[in-house]
Design a protein that fits this description.
alpha/beta; Rossmann fold; six-stranded parallel sheet; three-stranded antiparallel sheet; 5 helices; about 30% helix; elongated; binds zinc ion; zinc ion binding; Thymidine_kinase; transferase; EC 2.7.1.21
Length: about 190
């Protein structure tokens, strides 16, 4: 039975590394995985998933208007696909998460999604909200705060290292940085 997985975490928990390792494992067994990533994440160039420890792989891009069921159905009809890996899945829309459930339920291909649970304001991303709601398996990838506790929150800081308490959910470009911290240090950073 194919299933949908949501691997979620704060920043810098090794999501892309875990995704690329899964892709490698499938290929090693002679299987054919497909990787997608969000078109808005162009840190490492268009159409690539890169991990901080140096691994990288080509990827298809999804945009807000991409119909992922149709895209994957077409790829699968050209050549059998054994697994779909989605990086930056917090940027999926509700419709796209639904389309991915159809990939699992109608095409019987497992879908593994990797992304952030919440933004720097502690709010769920749209993609994460529906993945938490509809995925078969929820798997937390853990990372730690500077104090050693589990980091489940993300702080956005400006170029001086000060925590930012408002702004758009997605900041493209600019000098903002993201730091993963525990909830207590999140509150402290925002002066709560
Ligand atoms: Zn802490």
């Amino acid at each position: 039975m194919a299933q949908m997985y949501f691997y979620y975490s704060a920043m810098n928990a090794g999501k892309s590394t875990t995704l690329l390792q899964s892709s490698f494992n499938y290929q090693e067994r002679g299987m054919n995985p497909v990787i997608f990533t969000a078109a808005l994440d162009d840190r490492y160039g268009i159409g690539k998933v890169s991990s901080r420890i140096g691994l990288q792989s080509d990827a298809f891009l999804f945009k807000p208007e991409t119909d992922l069921f149709k895209a994957i159905e077409t790829l699968n009809s050209e050549e059998k696909r054994h697994c779909i890996l989605i990086d930056e899945c917090q940027f999926l829309s509700k419709e796209q998460v639904y389309q991915l459930t159809e990939v699992v339920d109608k095409l019987h291909i497992p879908v593994l999604c990797y992304g952030l649970r919440t933004d720097f304001l502690g709010e769920l991303f749209e993609g994460s909200k529906y993945l938490l709601s509809w995925a078969d398996k929820l798997v937390e990838l853990k990372t730690i705060c500077h104090c050693g506790r589990k980091a489940n929150m993300v702080i956005r800081t400006d170029e001086h290292g000060n925590a930012i308490a408002q702004g758009d959910q997605v900041a493209i470009g600019g000098n903002d940085r993201y730091v993963s911290v525990c909830r207590q240090h999140y509150k402290e950073a925002l002066g709560q």
